[in-house]
From TrEMBL:
Catalyzes the synthesis of 5,6-dihydrouridine (D), a modified base found in the D-loop of most tRNAs, via the reduction of the C5-C6 double bond in target uridines. This is tRNA-dihydrouridine synthase. It comes from the Bacteria. CDD domains: DUS_like_FMN. GO terms for molecular function: flavin adenine dinucleotide binding; tRNA binding; tRNA dihydrouridine synthase activity. Its cofactor is FMN. Gene3D superfamilies: Aldolase class I, Putative flavin oxidoreducatase, domain 2. PANTHER family: TRNA-DIHYDROURIDINE(47) SYNTHASE [NAD(P)(+)]-LIKE (PTHR45846:SF1). It comes from Rubripirellula reticaptiva. The gene is dus_1. Keywords: Flavoprotein, FMN, NADP, Nucleotide-binding, Oxidoreductase, RNA-binding, tRNA processing, tRNA-binding. SUPFAM superfamilies: FMN-linked oxidoreductases. FMN binds at residues 24-26, 83, 155, 185, 241-242.
């Protein structure tokens, strides 16, 4: 088993310390969310939402504004990863070059793990490409050439289904094509987000990599589980995903635990509500009150998750469309107890 506490993670020349990464999540990990995470600290590398490379090229060729998913990227602190997806090597390389030359991103990550049908079956991208290792190799190798010296990484799942697990083979393909790190979500595409992540499978992949680090992802929802991942499995880094959406302080808790320090307590309910309101203001400042309020609905539901009265709050906040309505619902219905009752 690896040493503990774990050393900093190295992705090419980039040092990620602590070796805890924030997962790219479509519809959630925008600049407002990343700002909140940075306020708490603890994340060694943050990431954008995944960006459709083909859509980016179209916007660029038509002199349109670049995607909202790149909001904040040019100016915010580093390190920062941008995740892109498509199945065409030349399109991916073109976008990668722009991200490194114009946006000066720290890492370009390739999404080979998204299981959503719109990305897989309709666009033959994301986890669909796990069945086409040669195309994956071409995408990675061309992107590496276009982005050098900025490191290129890849995120995959265990396979397309439980009867088509090929992560060991794919890991070798990813490394041989020149990627600087591999992140593995411990489910298959067919699993979507059901069941439990298979960390034993993730750990086994390490033996199939010669030089690049392995980052594990799946079901990390507490500082204790992050510590256990490093102690029990052969990974060089971990990536936290859905659990951080309503708990952006989770990274700071995990980082403290890795250092052997006392884990900071959960913020009080009042403090959590204040964080959510700050988050709301950032979104409204960018998108305006109408669009910002609608976008904030899903975040507000995340902040309430797991608390007594969360379902009642979700019912009401899902209908808000103005700032006044949002604040009224928060004042009247935001949960006031830590743990949901059974």
């Amino acid at each position: 088993m690896p040493s503990f506490p774990p050393p900093p993670l190295r992705i090419g020349d980039l040092v990620v310390d602590p070796p805890i990464l924030q997962a790219p999540m479509a519809g959630f990990t925008n600049a407002a969310f990343r700002h909140i995470v940075r306020q708490f600290g603890g994340a060694g590398l943050l990431a954008t939402e995944m960006v459709n490379a083909r859509g980016f090229v179209w916007l660029d060729e038509n002199d349109a504004e670049h995607p909202d998913r790149l909001w904040g990227v040019a100016d915010e602190p580093r390190p920062l990863a941008v995740q892109i997806w498509d199945n065409d090597p030349e399109t991916m390389a073109k976008v990668g070059r722009r991200l490194t030359e114009e946006y000066k991103v720290s890492v370009v990550d390739i999404n080979f793990g998204c299981p959503v049908r719109q990305v897989t079956e309709k666009a033959h991208s994301g986890s669909y490409l796990l069945r086409e290792p040669n195309r994956m190799s071409a995408i990675i190798s061309q992107l590496v050439k276009a982005c050098t010296p900025t490191p290129v990484t890849a995120k995959i799942r265990l396979g397309c289904s439980r009867t088509q697990i090929n992560c060991n083979e794919i890991a070798r393909v990813v490394e041989e094509a020149g990627a600087a790190a591999l992140t593995v979500h411990g489910r298959t595409a067919a699993d979507m987000f059901t069941g439990n992540a298979d960390w034993d499978r993730i750990s086994e992949i390490k033996a199939h990599l010669k030089h690049i680090p392995l980052i594990g992802n799946g079901d990390l929802d507490s500082a204790e589980k992050v510590v256990a991942a490093f102690k029990n499995y052969n990974v060089d880094g971990v990536m936290i995903a859905r659990a951080c959406l309503g708990r952006p302080w989770l990274f700071a808790q995990a980082a403290a635990a890795l250092r052997g320090e006392p884990v900071p307590p959960e913020p009080t309910i009042a403090q959590q509500r204040d964080v959510m309101i700050d988050h709301y203001q950032l979104v409204v400042d960018r998108f305006g009150e109408d669009k910002g309020t609608v976008l904030m609905r899903k975040y507000a539901c995340c902040y309430a998750q797991g608390k007594r009265g969360a379902r009642f709050f979700r019912t009401h906040v899902a209908k808000v469309s103005t700032a006044e309505e949002f604040y009224n619902v928060v004042d009247e219905y935001f949960p006031n107890a830590e743990v949901a009752t059974t």
